[in-house]
Amino acid sequence: MNDFLDQVETCVPALRRYARALTRNADLADDLVQDCLERAIARRGLFRPTGSVRAWLFTILLNIYRNSRRAAGRRGETVNLDSVAEPASPAPQPGHIALAELARAIDALPIEQKEVVLLIALEGLPYAEAATILSIPLGTLMSRLGRARSALRLATGATAEPHLRTVK
To answer: Which of 2, 61, 116, 165 could hold 144 in an S-S bridge, CB 3.0 to 4.6 Å?
Structure first.
């Protein structure tokens, strides 16, 4: 039991980072991670030691996120006014503009491509583990990643292949 909880605890920073990138909202991300951890601990008997705890937790988090998106689609979207940038204030530096542009481009991706890009580029997961988390074949993951990279190049005006994948 303690070994399981220790493994879960080591995954929390990565879960928070991924949830934050998916939701683009710190409060929603924290809620998503909390829901994921509650579900994982309550259902720890369903975990099979044949796979990694990390992959299992990411799968739970992703399923909760997808379910909440479906529910939100039926309710309509809520906009947090605190997250709306002031149009009259210029960015303090060019790097900030580039990051904001990339974040907007990632947000504009279809959800299937966004999930892949964030697992590979943000979390640095191996392709096979990301495919397992998303419950898709490896070839499908590669196709989605390729389409996402092309869309990001097009959206950001980049001419060279971006290095979204640094860890194999």
So the answer is: 116
